[in-house]
Amino acid sequence: xxxxxxxxxxxxxxxxxxxxxxxxxxxxxxxxxxxxxxxxxxxxxxxxxxxxxxxxxxxxxxxxxxxxxxxxxxxxxxxxxxxxxxxxxxxxxxxxxxxxxxxxxxxxxxxxxxxxxxxxxxxxxxxxxxxxxxxxxxxxxxxxxxxxxxxxxxxxxxxxxxxxxxxxxxxxxxxxxxxxxxxxxxxxxxxxxxxxxxxxxxxxxxxxxxxxxxxxxxxxxxxxxxxxxxxxxxxxxxxxxxxxxxxxxxxxxxxxxxxxxxxxxxxxxxxxxxxxxxxxxxxxxxxxxxxxxxxxxxxxxxxxxxxxxxxxxx
Amino acid sequence: xxxxxxxxxxxxxxxxxxxxxxxxxxxxxxxxxxxxxxxxxxxxxxxxxxxxxxxxxxxxxxxxxxxxxxxxxxxxxxxxxxxxxxxxxxxxxxxxxxxxxxxxxxxxxxxxxxxxxxxxxxxxxxxxxxxxxxxxxxxxxxxxxxxxxxxxxxxxxxxxxxxxxxxxxxxxxxxxxxxxxxxxxxxxxxxxxxxxxxxxxxxxxxxxxxxxxxxxxxxxxxxxxxxxxxxxxxxxxxxxxxxxxxxxxxxxxxxxxxxxxxxxxxxxxxxxxxxxxxxxxxxxx
Amino acid sequence: xxxxxxxxxxxxxxxxxxxxxxxxxxxxxxxxxxxxxxxxxxxxxxxxxxxxxxxxxxxxxxxxxxxxxxxxxxxxxxxxxxxxxxxxxxxxxxxxxxxxxxxxxxxxxxxxxxxxxxxxxxxxxxxxxxxxxxxxxxxxxxxxxxxxxxxxxxxxxxxxxxxxxxxxxxxxxxxxxxxxxxxxxxxxxxxxxxxxxxxxxxxxxxxxxxxxxxxxxxxxxxxxxxxxxxxxxxxxxxxxxxxxxxxxxxxxxxxxxxxxxxxxxxxxxxxxxxxxxxxxxxxxxxxxxxxxxxxxxxxxxxxxxxxxxxxxxxxxxx
Lengths: 314, 285, 318
Fold this sequence. Notes:
heterotrimer, A: mainly alpha, MetI-like fold, 2 domains, 0% strand, C: alpha/beta, Rossmann fold, 8-stranded mixed β-sheet, 4-stranded antiparallel β-sheet, 12 strands, 31% helix, globular
């Protein structure tokens, strides 16, 4: 288990490094330098020169990359342009809001997706199975920002059941949770479909297994068989899938934060783009990417831990 | 020629036999037809501003109403469909070409090259798509080209992997080795041995990416980072509608419903195609 | 007194291109404290027989006729809750392949605990009982075995655990579905001895299914010979092995490698194949492979009975 974990960790570090390299290359290859982008068209050459030196962009490319690379691994993502604060600090301030939103999305997708998947697997071929199957495909297909806007239109503007914008009163947890309902639904709805389909497929596979026949022959109840004997195995691929899901929810969160005017990394990046605050954009991209890779790593390790066959083999 | 036509007809029949496939096909054909005949169907100029006609509710003259600048939303939706379809087709075609080339290089090349390309593909896949898009758009400046570059970047790894897997499988099999030993060119090996085996999964994957691409284009345009005004896009219409959502919800409906119908249509069709032609892919998706 | 009485059981499966009759007019008795062996080639309907008794037929299978009497009720008429009650408590099963027979993500302790959910015992007593059962099937270090997972045991150990689980509720009938086929021959004897010991200790009956004639001869009191979903002959082990009436039984005994007294260059086989169960022929089912086939064999032979020795063959007709 330890060697496996270390191997996965090494691979994750490698991928993060590759992602850094790629990001750096893209910034470097794109015509126009970040300083000009940041300063806008009316900047003088002298101003540009000064900013270039300050950002270390007058150095040869490999030194630039080395600096970028080593600094980033130490958590130093440079300073943002407007207030000259460290990018890492600014991103970390906003990250909890985004994580709360994603956690909300996960709650929706797990709380609805797993029971729906189980239920349709047990009732396979029936009308409910078919209807939920089509519905799952539909919620996967529709982009999350459309869901966000229509959820806002229906539940907040027309029906006035839930608050439309903001993150709720600071310090008032109930209010904050109320403000989280719609945005997290927009973030998680597609994943309800994904998880329902995934759980259904793996449940159908597991229910065919010989050990399920044994459990039936021992007279265990359908409940025990479905939820304890089958689901505990069928859930494993879903955990891996959730790792991927969080990455996509990070994308959806950008839209949800903008539509519902919530604080968060997405909103931060969006505002940074409008003010051409380039270091902030690339820093936030790196943080979210690293986060995504870390979450996938954790998901893999959790699967390894949950499955005794994997646990002991490693 | 006749054989190909009858084969196509047969596939079509199998798609229509599935309710989901039939619905998908109708939506997709409707969307494509609306985009092709946009100029005939839309009586109003999608970009002409008419302050007198601002925020008009749907009526016979303006089937979907007008927006904050008095532009006819029906015309804008139809022309937005053209943009969505063009972006999807161009960027997926480009992704396919690049994907095939990179897949071949990874499959045929030495293993260190293969490994580093796989690492790079994994790195691309590990960016949250929208974050990557935002980063690129900042650098390029908002434009449809930037959107298409994003799409190509996120789609290429998937296509390249299919070709790479196929190439690796074939490389170790006897008949490619013998084909090469008698001097068959790479192009011939590709045409005769690799493409026929991977074209199915590749095209199914590509068809399932169409709705994703349409969503990316609409999403970026919604953020004001895609098409430049006054060019219509479903995303920018949706943004106009979002800004005025409390008073004039029909603008948001005009922008969002086409996105929903199109993504549903392509997804239903893609799912059906996959189930019919390549059930193996199901577990990978 | 019979624990299990199967009478005229017919089972069919809905399949592409018509229905497939897997069991036809099957009658079997399992007397109290007896071990009844069911022998036949693969595809003779042995697993369908088990699934019918346990009422675990797949969705496309159905019991068309006949009855399965067990402890004063007809299992073909029993509802789901009743069957659930019987399974694991009154009728228990040991399956062929121990590799996949146990749940891979639950510990042995959990699985043994779950089987006792109807016992009314407390958690402590249940665990003590699990421990006791593991000891009885001679699992070394049972305390630590309880905490482990199935994949940590060898095939033979897994089968011992499966037997412990099956015997835990002291059933009236144990069904053993080729319990040693997937194991090494060296383990076979030990497992069989273990089952026989437990059977006599608990005092249950056993339906032992196997294609291994040597095992059947050694273990069973009575033997049922099945072929293509039909019972061709049944009787005491002595009757079947020393005085077989049906040509199929004779051929089967000839073909058993264990019965060869002298070394032979080729193992004898029965020529031909099991007939297509989708298109059952009229008359005797073994006709197409029988060396004594005559015109009369195109009609279905009646079951002849004498001293508990039953056979379906025209050659035995009076």
